[in-house]
Specification:
Elements: E1 2-7, H1 14-17, H2 20-27, E2 32-37, E3 50-51, E4 61-62, H3 64-74, E5 79-90, H4 93-100, E6 104-109, E7 125-128, H5 138-149, H6 158-162, E8 181-182, E9 185-186, H7 189-192, H8 196-214
Parallel strand pairs: 1-2, 1-6, 5-6, 5-7
Antiparallel strand pairs: 3-4, 8-9
Helix pairs in contact: 4-5
The structure holds 6-chloroguanine.
Length: 220
């Protein structure tokens, strides 16, 4: 899979691409990233990429032309083009699974007060990562890319994906590791019992309790 990220702030991606599981997935050639600087596609003086909004109002709006030219620099017949914006449809694990089957994702990061609405003629969908406002689409694009890359075959162990939250319904079961007692707080006895049937039952019950407490909406 190939993931192209179009941004005005390419430096924000260096830590993301050079750490942990994403780094290893790139090294194993399971995914290839290109970070494209939208500013390189400005045809104006001083590489200008934004201007004041028609109709007035606060802030600056990203101009459509440099974004469209940046899209054209990476687009093929196989590309799926996603615009990260707080006005998009909320990103879910089901979307991550759908994206993980695609050959090429193009993630467009908006900034300032957004991108000229005519960008909608050049993209496949608008995606938000949740009901809060961020300064730009860079963190959301990393969120989407991270959720997708970990689902690519060979990136992480299959069992880790099958056992986790959001797959069946409800959240993951609580986990513990050494030491058996920390500042008086004990690991549940059953997990040390070695009885796999009891452990499985405890995990199912605890996962359900946690879901009822933290995310009752998932049980409806
Ligand atoms: Cl995709 N962009 C911005 N700027 N803020 C957000 C978002 C996206 N999703 C949630 N908040």
């Amino acid at each position: 899979m190939r993931i192209s990220i179009l941004t005005l702030f390419p430096e924000m991606f260096t830590g993301f691409l050079s750490s942990s599981i994403i780094k290893r997935a790139i090294e194993k050639k399971l995914v290839q990233f290109d970070i494209v600087n939208i500013r390189d596609f400005s045809k104006l003086n001083n590489q200008q990429v934004d201007d004041t909004p028609y109709g007035g109002g606060p802030g600056m709006v990203m101009m459509v032309e440099p974004v469209v030219e940046a899209i054209r620099s990476v687009k093929t017949e196989k590309s799926h083009i996603i615009f990260l914006t707080p006005s998009g449809k909320t990103f879910k694990e089901s979307k991550a699974k759908e994206y993980a089957r695609r050959e090429h994702l193009i993630l467009i990061c908006g900034h300032y007060e957004g991108i000229d609405e005519r960008i909608l003629y050049y993209i496949d969908e608008e995606v938000s990562i949740g009901d809060y406002v961020l300064t730009g689409g860079e963190l959301p694009s990393m969120v989407v890319a991270d959720a997708v890359v970990r689902l690519i075959d060979g990136v992480i162990r299959k069992e880790s994906i099958e056992e986790e939250s959001f797959n069946e319904k409800g959240l993951d079961y609580p986990v513990f590791t050494k030491p058996p007692v920390f500042e008086g707080h004990e690991v549940p006895d059953v997990l040390i019992s070695g009885n796999h049937k009891l452990i499985a039952a405890w995990r199912e019950k605890s996962a359900l309790e946690k879901t009822e407490k933290n995310r009752p909406d998932l049980l409806k």
